[in-house]
Design a protein that fits this description.
The chain is mainly α. It has two helices and no strands. The protein has one domain. 66% of the residues lie in helices and 0% in strands. Helix 1 runs antiparallel to helix 2. Keywords: Membrane, Transmembrane, Transmembrane helix.
Length: 68
């Protein structure tokens, strides 16, 4: 998947919505909106970093020697 392509943005929106709703609806604290926003944003950032790491070695022509 291309980083910051159409599919990535759709998955980021879905990830944010799921994390936000899970934390907003399941929290009874006074600052539930702020917590839900921060956790949703952290989930999207984590997804993007994971895809960046995954795509970094995608076209690598020289794999590590004796990887196993």
């Amino acid at each position: 998947m291309k980083l910051f392509g159409k599919n990535h943005l759709i998955i980021c929106i879905i990830t944010f919505a799921i994390l936000f709703l899970m934390n907003y609806l399941g929290n009874n604290e006074a600052d539930k909106l702020q917590r839900a926003l921060m956790i949703g944003a952290a989930g999207v950032i984590g997804l993007s970093v994971g895809l960046l790491i995954m795509n970094k070695g995608k076209d690598d022509k020289t794999p590590p020697h004796d990887f196993d």
